[in-house]
Amino acid sequence: MSIEPIPHRPNLTPDRAIAPRLFQALHEMSFDGVGITREAYGPKETAAHALVRAEAEALGLAIRTDHAGNMYLTLKGADPALPQLVIGSHLDSVRTGGNYDGAAGVLAGLSVVAGLARAGFQPQRDVTVMLIRSEEAGSWFPVSYVGSRAALGRLPAEALDVPRMDDGRTLAEHMEEEGFDPDSVRAGQPALTPAEVAAFIELHIEQGPLLDEAEIPLGIVTGIPGSRRYRAARVLGEYNHSGATPRRLRRDAAIALAELAYRLDAEWARLEAEGHALVCTFCVLATAPEAGFTLIPGEAHFQLDMRSENRASVDLLHDALIRLVGEIEQSRGVRFDLGPESGSAASAMDPAIQQELGQAAEAAGVPYRRMLSGGGHDTAAFAQAGIPACLLFVRNQYGSHNPREAMRMEDFDAACDVISRWVLARAG
Ligand SMILES: [Zn+2]
Questions:
Q1: Does residue 110 register a pLDDT over 90?
Q2: How far is the CA of 207 from the centre of ligand 1 (A)?
């Protein structure tokens, strides 16, 4: 599958005008006063889809929307029997996030396909830009990769009954309200089968500082980590008077949780020193609303997120969690209720596509490095479905999921050049 050499076709370059215009329009339609908010299966996400759809109509692309509201904008190839190339990402955002997380990948695909369409070029196989619904599980529905897994017929039926975190209404209700068909999603009907897709790629802003620090514009991702998570864990102790209760009779939930956090962090450090690559975060550590001055906390809440590209590493940390929970329950007279566990499997990126994208970057003169992804992305859902898939990072300043997220257009253009060369090599 390796491609050599990357063909140089100076007339077939990405459309450089379309993305700045659409980034601006997306910003205007979704600025919430502080940052960008495009809620999953809400009016702003739908408006963003409509904005991009209008561009696709003007370009004469074939347009299809599936049962879960994912949109496919296709430059038709000469041979409809050949499996297509898909370039996709999401258009929802976290609450008060930035304008580039997700949108950069959609607009990169559109820029590449628009360049080919405007030149009147017909590829051998279909090239599709996919606008994926509802990726930002941290802000809306606590479910990973909703749109991509629904498209592939791989979203578990029970995910449709999960309530949105702020309004309590289910994913199915929101999906239906935006005009889509949760029953078909629940039935596991695929809108896209692995046999129809030769390769999937996603461009995304890097969510950490590594590329910017190294002064390298592009990252080719080797793997996406899996996770083990507890979103609604509790420690149950006993409320009591802080002046009148001696130490030996206390069942202090807050101190028990603090001990767990401190000791699990030490276990993480130990595993890291042994060569394991993983991350461990107590995203929430809090006493309950009943807590107050002169009270020993009788209840504490936490959220825990453990991730690694290697399942075995995250499993070792999970073993330590269970051991520590038992020890602290014994020593402090509290009870831990971890609540439901959620998570996702780690996904390796396709080695052949990594190599092809590296060759395309070299041919385009774009410096790159191979790297792991810290966060999860829709690409993982494609990889888990058995579709050859790869993720690209573009250098970004100030991280992501915040209003300051940034990206230089020259870096975005360089990434589009690489994708365009790869598309021509694979679909030309
Ligand atoms: Zn994203």
A1: yes
A2: 9
